[in-house]
Amino acid sequence: MTNAAAPRRHLPTSPFRSAPPPPPKQFGVGDRVSHDQYGLGRVVGIEGDGLIAVLVDFGTRQERILPPFAKLFLL
């Protein structure tokens, strides 16, 4: 049995405001990044202000990563 607490959902009838959504991740050309599946890499291109895709060079391969960038982290 785990005690991992799930975040509470916001009820639409609640008089309290819900928590604001986290800001979208922003990446720039040349940023060092880490990906859960591909490992360490460097951003080599950005499509559409980073809202469409980010092109990352992982050394042995280049990957086009799409938003919401859940597995991509800035180092």
Key terms:
75 residues; mainly beta; five-stranded antiparallel beta sheet; 5 strands
Q: Can you describe this structure?
A:
It contains no helices and 5 strands. Helix content is 0%, strand content 33%. Strands 4-3-2-1-5 form a 5-stranded antiparallel β-sheet, with no helix packed on it. It is elongated. It has strands at 32-35, 39-47, 53-57, 62-65, 72-74. With 75 residues, it is an all-beta fold. It has a domain at 32-74. β3 (53-57) and β4 form a beta hairpin. The mean pLDDT is 87.
- Give the spatial strand order of the biggest sheet: 4-3-2-1-5
Poorly predicted segments: none
Largest sheet: 5 strands, antiparallel
Gyration radius (Cα, Å) is 17 Å
Structural class based on helices, strands and sheet pairing = mainly beta
- Tally of helical runs: 0
Strand content range: 25-35%
Backbone shape: elongated
Assembly form of the protein:
single chain
Percent helix, as a range, is: under 10%
Q: How confident is the prediction overall: mean pLDDT?
A: 87
Whole-Å distance between the termini? 34 Å
**Strand runs, count:** 5
Order of helices and strands: EEEEE
